[in-house]
User: What shape does this take?
Amino acid sequence: MNGDFRRQLPSMIGMASMFLVTIFLAMFIRPWYDKAGLQAFGAEGASQLRFIFLELVMIFIFTAAILALARYKKEWVIKYGIMGILFIALMYASVPLAHQILVDDTVEPFEYESTEVVEAEYLTEIGMNQYIDSVRTNENGIINNTISLKQLGMDEPIWTSVIPHGNESYELAKLVVATGPDTITINNGALIQTLSLTDGTLLSTYECFEYDEEGNIAPLVQFGCILAVETSDSVYIVDGGEKLHRFATFDEAPNVMTLQAIWQLPNEMKVVDDLVEAELLDDTHLLIVSKEMAGVVELEKNSVQIGGVGTGFQQSANVLINATSSANFSAVDVGHSNLIDEKISEATTSNQLIVLGTEDGDLMAWNYLPAEETLLVEETKLSINNFADQIRDVRLTDIDNTGYTELLITTEDEARLLYGTSMVQRLIIEVPEGENVAVAFGDTPKDVVDDTTHLHAVVIGENYSTTSGVVESSMFLSGGIVFEDIPTMIGLLVSIILMILLYVHSEWYVVNTVGILVGSGVIVMLGVSFVPTLIMIFMVAAAIYDAWAVYKSKHMLDLADTMINLNLPILLVAPQDTDYSFRAERTPASTEVSPPNLDDEESSQPRERVIKKSNDAMLMGLGDVIFPGMLVLSTLQYIGGDDGWIMAMATLVGSLVGYSILMWYVGQGKAQAGLPLLNGGAILGYVLGGFMTIGMAMFQFNISL
Assistant: This one.
C-alpha cells in the first residue's frame, strides 16, 4: 500500500497544483467582474437565500436531463449541448483574462492642491455640498454666535446671521443643531433659536429656563435642554435623561411655549456627548442618531403623563427603525436616493433615503416613505456588513450634475464613490486622517468654466480645515462591462481553439487547460454573486448531495461515465507518469471512485475499462475545485481588506487540508466523494480565519429569503 501511495504522489501533487492555479486565476480576474458589477442576481441578490435554492434546483435539473437523454440514446444532444456550455464558460475566463493582461486600466492619481484652516466651529452638513459653521465672540460680556451657511468651493458664505449665546455662565456651552427641510434649530442649553436656511433670518428664540413664583430661575426640563427642534406649532426638547418634551407654541405669543406632553426615549438613544446627528424629516418625524442607536421618533401631540414635569412614569415614545450598533454609529446622511432612476428635479414625492455608517465598517439604509402606509422600509441593497474597516462619513451627492445622486463613502483612509443604481465603484481617493471628517464634491467658479469639480475633505476638530483638489475624468475607474476590441477577440479566439482541440485532440493537457479556465470562470462568477454565509449553505447542501449521489444512488457515477464516454471530460487529469495518454484510456468513473457493494453481485463488477497503457492518472471533477474556490472568492469580495485576505487564505488552506485527507483515503484505495472533505475543510478554514480577524461578523450579511 505504501508503494502504491508513493506511486500516486506525483498525481496528488499535480492535482493540488491545478487546484491552486484554478483558484488563483479566479482571484486574478475578479477585479474585471468587480468593476463591471457582474453579480449573477444583482448586488441585492447576494444575500438572498432563494437564489441558492435556485442554483441547487438547476443542478438537479441538469443532472436529471443528462441522465434522461443518455437513457433515451440522445448522446448527440448531450455532446453538443455540453460543448456549447463549455464554450460559454470558457469565455467567462478567457475574455476577462485577456483584458486583465492586455488592458492598462490604471488611473491618474488624485492630488490635493490646497489646505485652508478655518478658526470656527464646524456644526453640520447641509445638503450635498453646504455646511454650517459658527464663530463665538465675547465683547464686553455680550456673547454672540456668528452663524454662516457656506458652500464648498466658494469663498463667501451664502448668508451670515448673528445670534445671542446667552450670559457668561454659558460661554463654553456647545451648540447642538438639528436641521430641517427649511430651517435649522440651534440650542446651547440656555437658548433655543431657529433660523431660516434660505437667508439666515432668526425666526424664533425660546429660553431653556423659567422663573418660579419667588422669581428664582428654574430649568425648563429637569435634566437640561440637550437637543431641540422646532416644528410648525411646537418645540420638542430632549433632555439628558432621554426624555422627549413637547412644548406648544403660539403665533399670537412669539417666544412663549407651554409644556403639553412627555415621552421616554430608549436608554440607548443618548444625546449627551453621544449625539451623531439629528434631522427633522418632516413636521411629525425626527431622526436621532446617537452612538449606540439610531431611530426615527414620531412627534406626537399628546401622551399619558403621571407625576410632575420630568418625574414619575412617562409613556414610551414611538421610535421607528430602532437600529443599534455595538461598534457605534459614526456617520449619517439623508437625501434623494441613489437607487432610484429619477432625477431630483423630477421627484414627485418627499421620499428620502437614510444612510448610516458605523465605526466597524457596516452600512445600514432605510427608505423614508411619508406618503406610504409603511413609513420606513429597509434598503437591503445598501445594508452591507463589513463594507470597510471603518466608516467616517457618508454623503449622497451628484458629482456630474446629472440630477441623479451617487453615494460617497469615506472609510478609514479613503473616499469611495459608488456610481448609479448599480453602485459600481468609480472613484477611490485617499483622505486626510482625523476622527471626524466630512467629504463632499463642490464646484469652484473655475470648475464651472473648466467643466471640472473639486473634492473637499473637511477635518473637524476644535477648528476645522478644508483640503481640496481637482477631480479629473482620468481618475475614474472603468465602470460597467468593458470590452476592448483586441482583448475580446483574443479571448474569443482562445476559446474557439481550445474547443476545437478538446473535440479533436482531447489529451490530458488540453483537458486541464479547459478545466482550469472553465473552473476559474465559474468560481469568480458565483463567488462574487453570493455572500460567504450563503456560499457555505450551498457547499453543505452540495456535499450532502455529492455523498448521496456517489454512495447511495450512484447516479453521479453514471453521469461521469456518460461524460467521459462522450469525450466530454469536465474534469482535471493528473498523470502519474510522463508517458500517460488520456486519449488512449477510457476509464469510467465508477471503477475509480465507487466502493463495491458486497450485497449486490452486479454492482461489484467493474464496468467497461479500456486501457492501452499501463500508466494511470488521478481524475477530479471541476465541482471539487469550484465549491472551495467560490468561498475563497466570496470572502475576498464581501469581507475585503486585510481581514478578507487573511480569511480567504485560511479558507484555501482549509480546503487543502481537506484535499490531503481525501488523498490519504484515495492512496489507501478507499474511494471517497470529494465535496464533503473539500467543502468541510474550506468552511472550517473560513471559520478559523474569521475568529482570528472579525469574529462573529463573518456570518452577519443580512441574509433574507
Observations:
- Residues 30 and 258 are 62 Å apart (CA to CA).
- Residues 2-103+482-699 form one domain.
- DSSP finds twelve helices and 35 strands in the chain.
